[in-house]
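Thread: Cell cycle protein, structure

OP (GT): Posting the sequence first so everyone is looking at the same thing. Length is 364 residues per the record. Can we get the structure tokens written out before standup tomorrow? I want them in the notebook alongside the other entries.
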Amino acid sequence: MPPLATLEGVPKFDLRFPLIVALLLLVGLVTVSSVALSPRVDPGIFTKQLLGVGLAAIPIGVLWWAGRDRIYALAPWLYGFALLLQASTFVIGKDVNGQQNWIVIGPLQFQPLELLKLALILFLPVVMRAGYRGVASYWRPFAVFLPAFGLVVAQDFGGAMVLSVMFAAILLAWRIPLWHFLLAVLAVGIAFPTVVFPHLKPYQQARLTIFLDPYRDARGQGYQVIQSTIAVGSGGMMGKGYKQGTQSHNGFVPEAHTDFVYASWSEEQGFVGAVAVLALYALLCWRLAGMATESPRLPDQILFAGVLGQIGFQAVENIGASLSLLPLTGITLPLISSGLSSLISTLVTLGLAYVIYRDRFEQI
């Protein structure tokens, strides 16, 4: 069958998108190679980061070959497999950094949550392809989202936050009435401080509130945030230079290669480098939004909204926590933080978005 009529003036490929991704990936490689000098960090993290880029090329190549229709056909199977893996962490999950949501097989360890994010971004557009058709149509997306959310929230509050923002972005792209969305936000705003927060464990409550005044527990819960802001401030306008970060290299900044990688980058590259990273994330989100508007089909628009919700929220939350502007939730910085499962998942998700964009005019 002939392809859909293309939008006039809109090219099939957009080289700006992979260029922005490559620049953020370069920032991550530069930062991780520098932080590897810290005595509290595994010196092999840079090699692992390079390995992650290479491994991500394999599934991205498969997606590029498969094309849009085959990818969507795979969505239900990927979703079921991801749910099964996430559920298995309750039985065979290993405790890594205080969270029993990792699967460890020999030298390999990964978070099923990363695969579950991708599966939701891919499967929700399939079940929502008919569009919003009244309140009764909500059952389809919620039937897919709630099992995943229920498995994640019990073990990983930060991961559950990411899934929630992804789902909210997807519902907006689905064209739900705005007052439905505002009512849901109001309900969450009332329920969280009155019902959810009091039932959290003390250390969870502290992590969610310590950013408001980290010096009230400067040697305890507030230590990480304080050291992060010191590292960012010490970078000045132009930074201390590559591999010259004293705060991160001397072990003062905890998790300098993951949770606080933005502080490590800012210390060495200064205010200019810190703003440059913010600009790159803004451009990435802008292109994802543009790719959605340039795609004629609703399922594709929903998929781009999910990717935008995930990447945008993780970037804002991670950077905000590093600057003591938002709660510390352990969410990684996309494409920059060290970690095989996170890096591969993010690259594959962005690769998926680019393949869907490439095939947006193809007839089903």
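GT: Both are above now. Quick notes for whoever picks this up: The first helix runs from residue 16 to 35. The longest strand covers residues 99-105.
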